[in-house]
Amino acid sequence: MRVVVGVGGGIAAYKSCSLIRSFTESGHQVRVVPTSSALEFVGRATFEALSGQSVHTGVFADVPEVPHVRLGQEADLVVVAPATADLMARIAGGRADDLLTATLLTARCPVILAPAMHTEMWEHPATVSNVATLRARGTHVLEPASGRLTGRDTGSGRLPEPAEIFALSMLLTERADALPRDFEGRHVLVSAGGTREPLDPVRFLGNRSSGKQGYALARVAAQRGARVTLVAGYTSDLEAPASVDVVPVKTASDMRDAVRKHSVGADAVVMAAAVADFRPESIAVNKIKKGSNEPSSIPLTRNDDILAGLVSARHDGELSPSTVIVGFAAETGDADGDVLTYARAKLERKGCDLLVVNAVGDGRAFEVDHNDGWLLGADGSESALGEGSKALLASRVLDSVAQMLDARSPRATSGPR
């Protein structure tokens, strides 16, 4: 795949080096096109060494090759990171006064802009208008992260992490229409990761969940315009997705309380977490030691069913009747039934609107970057989600959530961002 990585002139330009390496190490041909001001932050030689291609900023370099036209025409993907306020203004205005803006005018492939600027710049009416213009034309302008900016400032406008930009870029190569802005004005709660139930000060009962699928759902929902709350148990040191509020929890009861609190007013709740079904009846004050006093068994007690509790809360009026509730089922088959047999029974038992079913084992679902499965509906519908990245599966699940929300209540938009 031929990828053009554009680099705007902001302090976050140094992060583009990690993004370029991700593309090249994945086997893609990368051409770096910085603005002249970007070279004030990262030298030309660095970009050339990482990409293996010559680097130019002006339209008069290699004139016989007509790069200001051909780069965009031949690209399969264009990613600009960072995209500064000035650069986005020039792109929105149709300018072609350097090699990057000229390339963007000729590109007909997916184009992703990853903004990075101070909060005041991001929220300025001119930038808001430019972002709306670009999105209306089909350009994917990512939501920025919140955090430390230049100097002592913090706030919204931080460049999303390179790994996140790369993941979203790859999603668009898997599915070009994966990031519509169809969740504008909506609040989505996602749970992710595993819970840990302590046995003593040292040990716990846990599971193999990495949290990757839940984080992918939160990331994709945020980039489709949703306000996202992510209730996160234990994960594999995952970076918080850009523009997502993360609520950390430890045990199943912690997750139950956080989900019930933050689901009030939510338009959709997606329970992707791997919540422990059981916990020890009691927690030992001291470490359980081997020897004559070691226990022969550890009595367990059942944890509350969070998913079923959400359905009950909706029935009792604690949640809006239009709230879409999505469950996840990690299943294995046995002599009494296959994966879908058990999943259908679980859907009926839980009473949720949609159930995402994953067959687990043999390197599937847990602790990997890809996934597949089925989506079951309370109306009896069943569809295969297909195999692909966890972001791709997230986009397909969110398609069904959006359709269900549209059928239940009209969307209340909150502006172009």
Description of the molecule:
By secondary structure, this protein is of the alpha/beta class. The chain is built from 13 helices and 21 strands. An 8-stranded mixed beta sheet has the order 12-11-8-13-16-17-19-20, with helices on both faces. Strands 2-1-3-4-5 form a 5-stranded parallel beta sheet, sandwiched between helices. The chain has a two-stranded antiparallel ribbon with strand order 6-7. Helix 1 packs across helix 8. The longest helix has 19 residues. The protein is elongated and about 80 Å long. The C terminus is likely disordered.
Average pLDDT value?
92
- The gross shape turns out to be elongated
Largest sheet composition: 8 strands, mixed
- Runs in which pLDDT lies below 50 for 5 or more consecutive residues are 413-417
Helix content: 25-40%
**Widest beta sheet: strand line-up:** 12-11-8-13-16-17-19-20
Distance between the termini: 30 Å
Give the beta-strand count.
21
If helices are DSSP runs of H or I spanning 4 or more residues, what is the number of helices?
A: 13
Radius of gyration: 24 Å
Proportion in β-strands: 15-25%
Q: Which structural class is indicated by helix and strand composition?
A: alpha/beta
